[in-house]
Amino acid sequence: MIELVNLVKKFGDLTAVNDISLTIPRGEFFAMLGPNAAGKSTTLKLLAGLMKPTAGCSRVCGFDTQTQPLEARRRLAYIPDFPFLYDKLTAWEFFRFTGELFHMPATKIEAGAQELIMRFHLADFVNRPLESLSHGTRQRVAIVSALLHEPEVFVIDEPMVGLDPQHARVVKDVLKERSLAGMTVLVSTHQLSIAEEMADRIGIINGGNLIAVGSRDELRRQSGRSGQLEEIFLSLTANGK
């Protein structure tokens, strides 16, 4: 599960994340929405332990990401909006490298990677250097490497970047299946359709503040609008509300 407790991140006079508290239970698919520069990516980086909060804390499966970083990261997979890959490695070498970081046995790396390679249609690319792959193929490699150690919590920023409709569907299906099997999924996205189709609950961030949280029906009640998610989102984020 994920816990954000009075989380604050300031950059000088700018408050990027302003006293956010949120609990996402085991097995929930949670979508985080917000305008540009709302604080979504900063919140995810704080959760992943890549930034130190100005105040508050974040926990993964009960482990504080600042004071217990190794325990938290063993249970976490995090993919930023522009994932870093070691370009000189092949995809297969990168999968082995990732698995070894999590102390996975070679046989488990092999079996898990083979299954995911087939699911994500990567068989034709695994022996090619990562630097030669298209942006969408690199995104699929990043997702496979993140799923390989079977994380309890999966956090991804803009999951569909560079993906064609076929492979976007694969990502949606796999993440939903894993969520239903108990993996907590937190997705930050500008694509309202992903939240509308996939999420159990949705959080809306604006100006560093978590201004609304709930199911689609709960957000409709909070916004006073009965329409689609786009109308609800625009209503809640209008004029910096």
Notes on the structure:
The protein is α/β, with parallel strands linked by helices. It contains nine helices and ten strands. The protein has helices at 40-47, 69-74, 91-101, 106-119, 135-147, 165-180, 192-198, 216-223, 229-237; strands spanning 2-11, 14-24, 29-33, 55-60, 63-64, 76-79, 153-157, 184-188, 201-206, 209-214. The strands form two sheets. Strands 6-7-8-3-9-10 form a six-stranded mixed β-sheet, sandwiched between helices. Strands 2-1-4-5 form a four-stranded antiparallel β-sheet. A hairpin with a 2-residue loop joins strand 9 (201-206) and strand 10. Helix 3 (91-101) crosses helix 4 (106-119). The two termini are 29 Å apart.
Task: Please render the helix and strand layout as text.
Blueprint: E1 2-11, E2 14-24, E3 29-33, H1 40-47, E4 55-60, E5 63-64, H2 69-74, E6 76-79, H3 91-101, H4 106-119, H5 135-147, E7 153-157, H6 165-180, E8 184-188, H7 192-198, E9 201-206, E10 209-214, H8 216-223, H9 229-237
Helix pairs in contact: 3-4, 3-5, 8-9
